[in-house]
Amino acid sequence: HTPAPDGARGLRFTPVAPNVADQVTVPAGYSQHVVIRWGEPILRGAPAFDPDRQTAKAQAGQFGYNNDFLSLLPLKSERGRQVLVANHEYTDEILMFKGYSAAAPTREQVEIAWAAHGLSVVVVEEDRGSGKLTAVTRHQLNRRLTATSEFRLTGPAAGSALLRTSADRTGTKVLGTLNNCAGGTTPWGTTLHGEENFNQYFANASSTTDLRYGIGTGATERKWELFDKRFDVKQEPNEPHRFGWVVELDPYDPESTPRKRTALGRFKHEAAQPRLTADGRPVVYMGDDERFDYFYKFVSSKRMRKGGSRADHAYNLTLLDEGTLYVAKLTGDSPAGEFDGTGKLPADGEFDGSGVWIPLATGDVSHVPGMTAEEVYVFTRLAGDKVGATKMDRPEDVEPSPRTGRVYIALTNNTDRGKAGKAGADEANPRNANKHGQILELAENWDDPAGDGFAWRLFLVAGDPKDPATYFAGFPKDKVSPISCPDNVAFDPHGNLWISTDGNALGTHDGLFGVATQGERRGELKQFLTMPNGAETCGPIVQDRRVLVAVQHPGEIDGATVEKPASAWPDGPGRIVRPSVVAVWRKDGRDIGV
Ligand code: FEO
Ligand code: CA
Ligand code: CA
Ligand code: CA
To answer: Where are the transmembrane segments (predicted)?
Structure first.
């Protein structure tokens, strides 16, 4: 009998060393398996995956590409089963199709890509003896939503002239969701999905608003505009306005039309993480993942109904349509002159300060001079510019601690910080040419999520702990794992923060980490797993007995193709590389990290 490794409760595992192995590496004493892969059939009638004979029709009934956010919801009526919801952020055609020509994609390839985007709902069954989960194919709740499924725009900007197109004179009916990155799970049993880098699907932009959102002035890389004119801004100028929203899906109602919630604003939504105020109103925190972009929250004016009746549920599906949208402005408490961009701690020993939530719009009322409420919702970035919001180092996922209420925001990196003509270092973003990112901890005033002010401090300044410009909440740095580019965040049942990374700039693979946020081990960061070649870690879920991660874009390395893959994951050499969901559990059947 070997003694359990040291650590905070929930984090008692032997850390995985940084590595470049082409596999998912888990701690000693843990097992893993693939829950579901790209292309596995989930709907009735969908065929088995055959990469050499793939069709759009097949893909529309199969698990999509590049799984990102994951949510597991209870399925109380069916013992041992849960509902898995997954985002399929984007497609990587060169790794999907043999002989793919970027210059001349075929219609079938483009339509397969449309069907490989979007969301999946798939019921999964627990194995009694392990942490394994297996997909229940053809379950009545299983569902695919793609780039061509119907979505409804709701809330204060729905129907606006800015959202009408030649195909939809009502400005309320959109085909498709695109680039769903991270998301959140609501207390009323729905899931939220951020539409992130939607700009890449649209061609031929010229307006200042489209340019502020990064839509290109020429052809797109995927060339969808040649197959559907709505992707050509010159022909359909308002179509891009119908992407960049937070989608709300009701996974328990397979007939429901998912909603795009305009009250939550339009930007490159990384995620959307809800919590409730003391009087039951939902608050949703949201990052805009772009260098020098902003951090937001939405506060509903309506209280969640907890009765559980059909009418209560229908009411709860309107909570995110009425309220106030805010953007964050942060002020450091140390003199600005102490921030020279090197990341050196200020004299008071902490990167910290206070902040205000600046209201942008409430229902039909704009709080931004010179912009209507509809303009605030559709061009939210411009509203943030006007009110002087704080330019952050790429705000990604966010998670409030269920124990303390403090909110953790991953700021993934910003290599442009301090460049000529760009904002320089400040107390919340203290490093120029920031390659490794940081995690900010925010405490709402009076612990009220609906409040208009907050205190903040940096919890982690990521990188190699040997680098003096790193910080692990004051924990001794010789006892922590290196980490770079924090992206998705989640809490475990013990109140530890789990962090997945995207783009590790330390020369090793991305991975998943756990860190205590309270007590004397606060800041003790430990690596739990690492990714195969080219992959990013997404969608972490940490349950008592199981950790779930989405292995996104395995093998995505410059020059790789289907014929010349850069990874053999998950099925070994000679088999096509497939983004997949992985479950990890303890071999002895006990809880994770105890
Ligand atoms: Fe899709 Fe910001 O990660
Ligand atoms: Ca300070
Ligand atoms: Ca992400
Ligand atoms: Ca999260």
So the answer is: none
- Structure confidence by residue, pLDDT tens digits, 110-166: 999 999 999 999 999 999 889 999 999 999 999 999 999 999 999 999 999 999 999
Comparing CA positions, the residue from 467, 403, 569, 486 lying closest to residue 24 is: 569
Q: Among the atoms of ligand 1, which is closest to the Cα of residue 197?
A: 1
Euclidean distance between the first and the last CA atom of the chain, given in angstroms as a whole number: 15
Ligand nearest to the CA of 458: 2
Please state the pTM of the whole predicted model: 0.98
* 198: nearest Cα among 228, 165, 231: 231
Q: Is the CB of 181 under 6 A from ligand 1?
A: yes
Domain boundaries, the chain: 30-233+241-586
Q: Which ligand is nearest to the CA of 541?
A: 4
53-85 pLDDT tens trace: 999 999 999 999 999 999 999 999 999 999 999
Is residue 198 within 8 Å of residue 240, measured between CB atoms? yes
Query: Residue 162 corresponds to which amino acid?
Result: L
Strand order in the sheet with 536-542: 30-37, 580-586, 547-552, 536-542
Query: For residue range 271-316, what is the model confidence (pLDDT) as tens digits?
Result: 999 999 999 999 999 999 999 999 999 999 999 999 999 999 999 9
**CB of 293 sitting under 6 A from ligand 1:** no
* Ligand 3 is an ion; residues with CB less than 5 A from it: 181, 487
Q: Are 136 and 123 in contact (CB under 8 A)?
A: yes
Angle (CA) 41-43-48 rounded to 5° is: 25
